[in-house]
Give the backbone structure.
Amino acid sequence: MVEKIDQALIDRTDLMIEIPLPSVHVLIKIMTKCVDELVRKNILVFDPGFGNENGLTKLQSEKLQEISAKANSIKISGRSIKKLPILACLGEFDIPFKIDKFLTNLEKQVDLFKM
């Protein structure tokens, strides 16, 4: 992105720090926190009686890891990744809706992402 900035502006900077894109592990944490918040706001629901400490089943956790890895491979920034869960909820009229539907929508949003 630095190459897109005007050289005159770069020459006037005292300090330039490059912040790398988040790793897959960080993306998983960001997405898990987003899921937790959507559950707290009663937008998403988990299947009762299933899941681990954060409510996700093993299969759902693996799906979230897969989505995070895909987001990392196409270089989605941390700022952009935080918008995708909300985009994944758009168009759902039966609120709250299940986490499996959300994960499907989230994967579609990652697939549609353009920098």
Q: What stands out?
A: DSSP finds six helices and two strands in the chain. Residues 63 and 98 are 14 Å apart (CA to CA). Residues 21-112 form one domain. The first strand starts at residue 44 and ends at 45.
